[in-house]
Amino acid sequence: MQSSTPSPITNDLIDSLPPQDRVFFLADCETIDLAFGEVITEPGGRILHVFFPLDGFISLIASLGDSERLEVAMVGSEGMYGMPLTLGLDESPMRALVQGAGPALRMPAAVFGRHLEQCPALQALLKRYLYVLMHQLSRVAACTHFHQVEARLARWLLMTQDRAHSDQLHLTHEFLATMLGVRRAGITLAAMALQARGLIRYYRGDITVLDRASLIEASCGCYAADRSLYRRVITEEGVTEGG
């Protein structure tokens, strides 16, 4: 993780703050580069910084053992990493793994705590974002149990595309299997099915989204539900409260 040159602010949470609060908040942030595969914290580890991705994104992974892992949430330019700090806790319950390299804004935990105490708008915004994360966690649990692998893979590719801001994704079958909590063979069959329908092109870990609209139709309803909830709770409420 290295410091980076300033980048245009594209984090939706920060952009939802009232202008004056946003200026004060950004003054205490530094722009860094998230490196692919970097582990920010392990389960039980101390959260030293909060991160607001601009173009990179972070996977939150629940672990039951060395080989039993499942991605339960994804944080990109729509959100932040470090939410336990808003509850007065500095311990991470999950593994935080950089899944997409790119710039992010970073703030020390102690400084973030002071902003949280002094800025009611930030408190209100992050309470709403916490609700969105709770919804995402609960839906992942249900989705993993009830929905077919092909539909779940379509949903996961769409979520990744949104945060990568690109149609080009580099994702191996082994990595996808870990993220979705299924066998590699299941990912292979699901990817082949999506490719046969002309929705994606897959070759040696490189995935290209060819038909986003049809990929949305192929995904389970969880993808549309997540986006709808975010718009209602964060975007629309933020406009109402922030003016």
The CATH homologous superfamily name of the largest domain equals Jelly Rolls
Distance linking N and C termini: 36 Å
Number of domains: 2
Question: Averaging pLDDT over every residue, what do you get?
Answer: 90
What is the overall shape? globular
Assign the CATH class of the largest domain.
Mainly Beta
Q: Total number of helical segments?
A: 9
Low-pLDDT residue intervals, each spanning 5 or more residues: 3-7
Q: Give the proportion of residues in helices.
A: 40-55%
Within the largest sheet, what's the order of strands? 1-2-8-4
CATH fold call of the largest domain? Jelly Rolls
Which band does the percent of strand residues land in? 15-25%
Secondary structure class reads alpha+beta
Question: So what's the oligomer here?
Answer: single chain
**Rg to the nearest angstrom?**
18 Å
> In CATH terms, what is the architecture of the largest domain?
Sandwich
- Total strands: the figure is 11
Main beta-sheet strand count, sense and barrel state: 4 strands, antiparallel
Name the helix and strand elements from N-terminus to C-terminus, one letter apiece: EHHEEEEEEEHHHEHHEEHH
